[in-house]
Amino acid sequence: MIKRWSLLLLLMVVVSFLWGAELSWAQSSTPPAAPAENEKKKPEPEEKKAPPAPPSLPGPEKLLNGGNFWDHWKFVSEEAKEANRNVTWKVVSGVKDQPSVLICSGKPYGYIRTQKSYENFQFSMEWMYPSDPNANSGILLFTTEPDKVWPKAFQVQLHRPEAGYVFPTPGSGAKSANKLSPTTPLDLPVGKWHKCVLTCRSGNISVMINGLKLGEVTGCDPSKGAIALQSEGSEIHFRNLVVEVLAPAPAPESPTKPKKDGES
Q1: Cα 62 from Cα 102, distance rounded (Å)
Q2: Residue 126 predicted with pLDDT over 70
């Protein structure tokens, strides 16, 4: 009798084990239920793309020591047919480590201008009047065609008593919001080199002579063109003529409009 109950108990244990194993296998083999529509995985937000890098700018460009001089400049004169450009404008190579010097005889009246046109740039150069205390010349910025004496441009005066004055070429049609008239004449002795740095951006011209900022002319029209050097009756020497293209000036931010009461 005891053996019979023992066998029956053993049989119940085996049946119970087999039934549990079958239930476990069925649950593991059942595929998981599809997620509800609103529980589906949301797409990951797209990564913000970095703004494109600004285009690289060319480095400083030498307008006197960089190869053939007339590859960079065009000669314009009142007497273009009779004048010899290599007599009015003569390049003298520097000795030892000295830079080359461009000598302008001042005759006939006219100018040389760059073959290229510039809009946002910095132009630097040094000049010297060898002996004449009343010598005259100038730099023309944003010079546009037609080539004539005198062209549509903005003149930076190099006449000794008025060096640093900036104004549109009279009668040319060039316009600006203001002019630059330094209040105190600069001390620019003859026989010595003086440095001029002109920064032109978005139609504005900033003038610095011998490290002193004289001021700014704004709203220039035209605001793009060639750079020119004048021949105006006096011998003048130039050296270290360098132009460097700049990025445009950033646009001014628009002022924030104050919110009215009740606006969110």
Answers
A1: 13
A2: yes
Calpha distance 180→174 (Å, rounded): 15
Rounded to the nearest angstrom, the gap between the alpha carbon of residue 138 and the centroid of all alpha carbons in its chain is 24
Residue 166: alpha-carbon gap to chain centroid: 22
Cβ neighbours of 228 (radius 10 Å): 24
The pTM score is: 0.75
Sign of the dihedral defined by the CA atoms of residues 241, 245, 248, 250, in that order = negative
What share of the chain in percent tops pLDDT 70?
73
Residue of 114, 113, 112, 103 whose CA lies nearest to 61: 114
Nearest to 105 by CA among 237, 238, 239, 235: 235
The CA distances from residue 156 to 26, 141, 160, 214, 215, in Å, are: 94, 8, 12, 11, 12
Tokens in use for 147? 């080539």
* CA-to-CA dists, residue 181 to 29, 43, 161, 194, 221, angstroms: 93, 64, 12, 19, 19
Kindly write down the DSSP assignment for every residue of 181-241, as one continuous string. --SS-----TTS-EEEEEEEETTEEEEEETTEEEEEE-S-BS--BEEEEEE-SS-EEEEEE
CA distances from 167 to 91, 110, 118, 162 (A): 29, 18, 18, 12
Placement of tokens 């003048």 in the chain: 236
